[in-house]
Amino acid sequence: MNCNIEDHFSRSTFLKAGVGGLMGVLLGSSPLRAAQELVRKVQAKRCILLWMSGGPSQMDTWDLKPGTTNGGTFKSIRTRVPGIRISEHLPKLAAEMRDLAVIRSMTSREGNHDRASYLVHTGYSPQATVKHPSLGSMVSFEMGDPNFELPNFVSLNGGSRGPGFLGPEHRPLVIRNPGGPPENLSPRGIDRTRQHKRMLLLQEFEKSFEKTHNNSAVEAHRDVYEKAQRLMESRLAKAFDISGAGRSAQAAYGLDNSFGRGCLVARRLVGVGVPFVEVQLGGWDTHRENFDAIQRLSSMLDPAFASLVRDLRADGLLDETLVIWMGEFGRTPRINANVGRDHFPRAWSAVVAGGGISGGQVIGETSDDGMEVKENPVHVPDLFASIAYAFGIDHTKELVTPEGRPITFVDKKAKIIPQLFG
User: Fold this and answer.
1) Tell me: the pLDDT tens digits for 2-21?
2) What is the pLDDT of residues 281-291, one digit of tens each?
3) Same domain, yes or no, for 236 and 253?
4) CA-CA distance, 171 to 137, in Å (whole number)?
5) pLDDT category, 235, cuts 50, 70, 90?
C-alpha cells in the first residue's frame, strides 16, 4: 500500500545510532539504550500538516485563560484527559485528546506573516543567500519514492512553501479546491494512445535539445512531464475524488467547506502512500472581531481535525502518520480596541498527533496573563528536530545546495522535545 515508502524508511536506519546518541544525552540513558528506544519509537512514514494561515489565537483554542483580563469570552471545557481543558468550540477534539500532544510554549521572534510563515514551514528564518526547503519538500526528499505514481507532496487549499534548493521534483502539487480529480488530469480532445505518441515525440525533441544545452534543466523538465504522465495514468488518482463519500463522512468532516474536504482527501492520500499532505485553513488573522471569527473557524476545524485523527486510528494508520496543527505565530493575549488580537510570536500553541508521539499531554506552560512562556520553551527548530526524529531522520545531517553550500536539515542547535516521545 505504501508503494516502497518503507524501502526509503529502511535506508534511513543507518542514522539511528547518531540520533540515538543525541537522545541518550537528552533523556539521560546510554547511547545503546537510546538507539533501542529509537527503533521502538520511530514510526512515522507520512505526515499531514494542518496549516492555520494567518496565525491562530492560542488564547481561544488550546490555551484559554478564562476569568482573566486577557481571557476573552470563550469558556474552557474538559477533555478525555483529566486536567486538560480546551476551547468550548472544540468539543470533538476534546474527545480525541488522548491522541493529541498540545505544545503551549512555542516561541519565536518572527512577527511578520511572510517571514514567520517561512520560518514555521522550513525551520529557518529567511536568508538572502539560500532558499530553504519546506517541511513538505524535505519529507518528499527523505521519505518519498521518485517512481511513485502520485506526487510525494500535495498541498490542498493553497500553495504552501516550495522546495528551495532541493529542486522542482519536490515541489507540491497544489489543489485549490479539494474533493475532485486534479484539473487537467485527462487529455482533452485526444485519446490516451495519441497522448502517448505525443510524449514520445516530446522526448525526441528533448534529446536533440539536450545535446547543446544544460543537462540538468532538461532532466528537470523531463522529470516534471514524466510525473504528470504517471499521475494521468494512475489508478491511485481516484484518492483525490470524494464525490462518492457517504452521508456519514459528509457529516463527520463537514464537506460543505474546503477544509473538511481537504482533511478527507488527506486521509485518502496518505492511505495510498503519499508521504506529505498539507491542508490549509485561512482566516486566522483576527485583528478585528476575533471571537466571531474564531468561533466560525472552529466550527470547520473541530469536526474535520477530530474525524481525521479518529479515522486514521481506525484505519491503523495513525501510528505511522504524524499530524501537525500550527500556524505562523499566535495572537496577542491583550484584546485590542477592535475586539481583535494582533500578531504574537512570543508564546503560542501547536498540536501534534500520531507518528509514534505520546498523546494525551500538554507540553509547556504560559504565564497567567498569557504574555510569556513560563515553562519549557519550544523553539520552531526544536519542533522540526522532533519531527525529523519521528521519521528516523538525523536532523543534523548536511544537505548540499547547488552552489556547494552545506545546510543542515535543521539548525544544529535545535533540541528534540523528549516529552513527545516519553
Assistant:
1) 443 333 333 333 333 344 44
2) 999 999 999 99
3) no
4) 6
5) confident
How does pLDDT run across 313-330, given as a tens digit for each residue? 999 999 999 999 999 999
pTM, entire model:
0.85
How many independent structural domains does the chain possess? 2
Angle at 174 between CA 173 and CA 175, to 5 degrees: 120
Give the range of the structural domain holding residue 207, as residue numbers without chain letter: 185-240
Clarify whether residues 53 and 148 are in a common domain.
Answer: yes
